[in-house]
Design brief:
Length: 171
């Protein structure tokens, strides 16, 4: 698997020169929607692409999320467009990538974008937040596409990781 994993790496970069400008997602899962909620909470512009009818794994996507609707109901088209619109893709998983998460990985590689995979079976939220902060800084990620899973802790952990990284500063 070709996912960048940074281990205890600290990159010294001029923090004023780097800023995450937008968080995008397809809004399909609890994890995806948590990323959008953190963007709203922290005043970061958000967006992304959602299938026709705003249909998601959790029901109809709430209107507070300012996503563009595709002309197709095919979610793989949304993944492709979100990858193309982003400078980096954050994939949050529990174990092996399957389904939409693996599709996002393949699209990210195909379109030559940066990618960070966080396997929450392998690390806690604090380490994941540090890793995310370093990745955003190192690769100067300005638009981050977030895709993740549903699960009992997916929303909470996604919020902890993204908000934690942003609160550490320099992103």
């Amino acid at each position: 698997m070709n996912i960048l994993i940074l281990k205890d790496y600290r990159c010294k970069i001029n923090e004023e020169s780097i800023m995450l400008k937008k968080i995008i997602s397809g809004g399909q899962t609890e994890s995806d929607q948590a990323a959008l909620d953190i963007a709203i909470k922290m005043g970061i512009p958000h967006g992304g692409w959602v299938p026709k009818g705003r249909v998601t794994d959790t029901g109809i996507l709430p209107l507070r999320f300012k996503l563009k609707e595709m002309s197709s109901e095919n979610y793989s088209e949304c993944i492709r467009q979100n990858v193309m619109d982003a400078s980096g893709t954050l994939i949050i998983s529990y174990g092996k990538l399957t389904g939409d998460l693996d599709s996002a990985r393949k699209a990210t590689l195909r379109y030559g974008r940066q990618m960070l995979g966080i396997d929450l079976d392998q690390m806690d939220d604090i380490k994941a937040a540090l890793l995310l902060k370093d990745w955003i800084q190192l690769y100067r990620i300005e638009v981050m596409f977030v895709i993740g899973q549903n699960g009992p802790y997916a929303r909470n952990q996604t919020e902890n990781i993204i908000e934690g990284a942003l609160m550490m500063g320099g992103v």
